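Continuing the series of single-chain predictions for the mutant panel. This is the parent chain; the variants come on the following pages.
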Amino acid sequence: MYNQVILLGRLGADPESKFSATGSQIVNLRVATSERWNDKSGNLQERTEWHRVVVFDKQAESCAKYLEKGRTVLVEGRLQTRSWETTSGEKRFMTEVVAKVVRFVGGGEGGQRRPDEPNAIETVTPPINDDDIPF
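Parent structure:
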């Protein structure tokens, strides 16, 4: 079994940063990917998909520091679905990409990279054990 996602897209918003109870930084990214094709009539069509990406620890710090809306990123990670119950008792689900590597592609405005900006930061995610598998 293999769970790997690779996305190349643009940030639809600035990174949203928060901290866990233990003080570790967590960053949420909204990444847009687009697909273009010609339909049967020859008209150009485009579809944009939005992806939720969650980034942890040192990698999250770098993303919060260097990334901004409109920036192109290459994300490598795995899919994860979370569930929770609303205050009214409804069960909700969300699927997101848990980033292993976020590569900063191109630059900010004008396409220039900052001199102190890393190319990519990799984090180690804990292995999946049998209790994590829902079936």
